[in-house]
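Progress report, Aim 2. The chain analyzed during this reporting quarter is listed below.
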Amino acid sequence: MRLRAVSVAAILAVISPAAAIAQSAAAPAESAASQAAQLRAAPVTELVSEVDIPWKRFQLDNGLTVIVHEDRKAPVVALSVWYNVGSKDEPAGSTGFAHLFEHLMFGGSENAPGSYLGRMRNLGPSNLNGTTWFDRTNYFQTVPTPALEQALFLESDRMGYLLGEVDQEVLDLQRGVVQNEKRQGDNQPYGLFEYAQLEALFPEGHPYRHSTIGSMADLDAASLETVRNWFRDKYGPNNAIVVLSGDIDEATARTLVDRYFGKIPRGPVNTPAEADVPTLAAPIVATMHDRVANTRLTRSWAVPGMLSDDAVPLSVAASVLGGLASSRLDNQLVRGEQSAVSASASMSEFHRVGIFDISVDVKPGQDAAEVGRRLDAIVADFIANGPTEEEVARVATRYVSSRIQGLEQVNGKANVLAEGQLYAGDPDFYKKELATYASVTPAEVKTAMQRWLTRPVFDMTIAPGEREAYVEAAATPSGATPVPATEIQRVARDPMPTIGQVPDLEFPAVERTTLSNGVKVVYAQVDTVPVTRVGIDFDAGYAADSADRLGAQAMMLDLLDEGTTSRDANQLAEEEERLGASINVGASMDRTSADLSVVTANLTPSLTLLADVVRNPAFAPSEVERIRASRLSGLASERTNPGAIAARALPPLIYGADSPYGRSFTGSGDEASLTALTRDDLVATHAAWVRPDNATIFVVSDLPLSQVTPQLEAAFGDWRAPSAPKGTKEFAATVPATTSRVVLIDRPQSPQSLIYGGAVLPVSGTDDLLALNAANVTLGSDFLSRINSDLRETKGWSYGVRGGVTPLEHRVPYIVNAPVQANRTGESIAALIAQYDRFLQTDGVTPSELERTINGNTRSLAGGFETSGAILGALRSNALYGRPDDYQATLASRTRALTAEQLDAEARRIIKPDQFVWVVVGDASVVRPQLEALGLPVEERSIQ
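Predicted structure tokens for the chain:
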């Protein structure tokens, strides 16, 4: 399955160059003119031998299990705490408690009151978060080594000494935040499917029948004493695993963990809820209506969990059926018969059970019932005959390659060890999985499918239409009524340890070379894992589209991996899978890019494949028409997604429609331009922008540059620019002035409104924005920013609010992204305006905020550039914004020199809230009266 859908995160961030490109074809090609020789990959067994995470394990007297992995590549340590409790352990009437308590764990503890995230921000963490799922709750952070003791103190304090800080006010606030998280997920297209799926597959009383987010009613009913008892029963040290991964050894870990966790008393033993794999008595066929663009067909089965011998065979089956780019469903329904715009299959593995999913989005104009019958026939044939050896081998190579690349972060290794210990009692469980993938046979895959997928299926169709009435939270939750609760006896501890001196970032040396055709190469060596990452950036991006050809860049890119002059789309996909490589093409507003990530053993053939994609696209007429239809379908889907609706609406309002930045941040264009684009237009777009004289190659590899350069030369050195002129982009010297107003876009039945506001700033991405961005940590970008602290942490009206500078190459926008509960939309805009006015007029950065910003921004650098992917991103951003090679290495010293006065002055000089245009995507019948009360001009528009 290959989907180039636009993620909401990508839409709202607009900053990272995705991946990109190709060289033009002289004539139409319906199929590969001359077949390329198959590329040779390293054996999967050779790749498996590369994967090893040495570890030590010990247990404290209170039952806490500790795992230590030593990795001295960077002065950071990942601290990961996994609790053996998840939503499957919740009794009836308490759904959502595990996840609610995850939120409460971030509210501060008895010896570290106030926000946990605020205290952690001072440590300079990366990967800081917590998650809850059916089987576990985990908390994780990667911190500089000198900050580890304080991190251990904070984690141990919320494990052993939390409840004194969990009062009725804290519970009510986080209840509201969680309910807004639920609204935010439910508000997405197809967002209600999971509830129906779980209730259909699992009978009443089954531990996996309810979603982790829980129900509004049960969250409303959560009382203070009930929630406290949940903690007492589930969060003892004997029900937890602590993993330390990174710049630490076992002896040090023993001393520190015992010091901070050793005095926490044991709690009750939580035996994870047992759960069988249920079989439906008969197939269930159902239809759900939602405000979606495409009819979605789904098929689901409950299957065994991750410890079953059938788990890997079923996962392989899902990949072959609908997970690979060369999948059966993709080839037959999407590329072949062209009755679907996307198709996927997946195997979700939990501790006790799993869910095998199939999903097909029907192409507009097709008969959904007929596509469903065809889907069932393909699945039945696959179950009867199984996969080929070649398909199984490609899945195994892709899985192992992905696993190797995922082990680059110390936190990634911590998660692997913790998961194995928690579910299998063995941190090396990942080795068993790898060995199984390397040895699984087609016969085993077929047998597993015939055992589990011939049982009755849950068959749900999600069709366009009005949703059923949404079940909202109570205006006055019953759990918010104060009732007598046991007084918490606080336990005094030794003072919190201080943070040692954190060394400045040591950024890898940047080297350069030039290929024989003049293409510049920028390189850094990182040898943590045997992986090479290559990025080719072209000065193009969505801003390169002409006003009458909007969407041309994106459509051209979609066609690059849909066939070259020597390989068709399926051959490209199969080669990529055979090599365990990841090749992605895409664009940001400013750059078009082609990215390769691969284990270094397969670098040479993978570069050959990347070069074929970039240089030799076929633009076959049949593929052009298929991608056109897919693009039009995607455009319709964007109009059902709140984030995409906002990202389409705001740019022309603040930049003006004539600016290269004054078009949708999604790059998807409009119906008129997509319909009018010809093959010749796409060939010309490729020739103008995807060419060697418009390219820079960035490489991060474990190999030295001297070994990488000949391979790049072989793949790209003979690439010559076409005779067509190179493309140019024209940015006007001025941007139209804006005044504050509200543009309301009606999206009926929205339980949440998306506020997406902003203005163009009088600065560019090539300017020095260090002080502005540092000031905005306090104002808009941090968890403890003024706006998030107000709307989330004080009022509880949102799951999260962010405002920040989007670093485009030319004039940059400041954008506020605030999803809020619908009945608080107007008040939320008023609160945002008040926060910006207060900060920019009277109440600037305080001494404590300055300290937290400087410490957080400097101490987090080592963790922020821990991976080769992060290093590659830094090389590319330095080139895009005209920064020197030592930019990252000097960040710490430059940041420490900032003063509160400098931050205030820079923010007040640049950010002008009275120029903000506020786009609101929500139910107009609910929110318009609120907006009219603001005293701002309100314009209502339909979805564009």
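The first strand starts at residue 56 and ends at 59. The radius of gyration is 27 Å. These observations will guide the mutagenesis work planned for the next reporting period.
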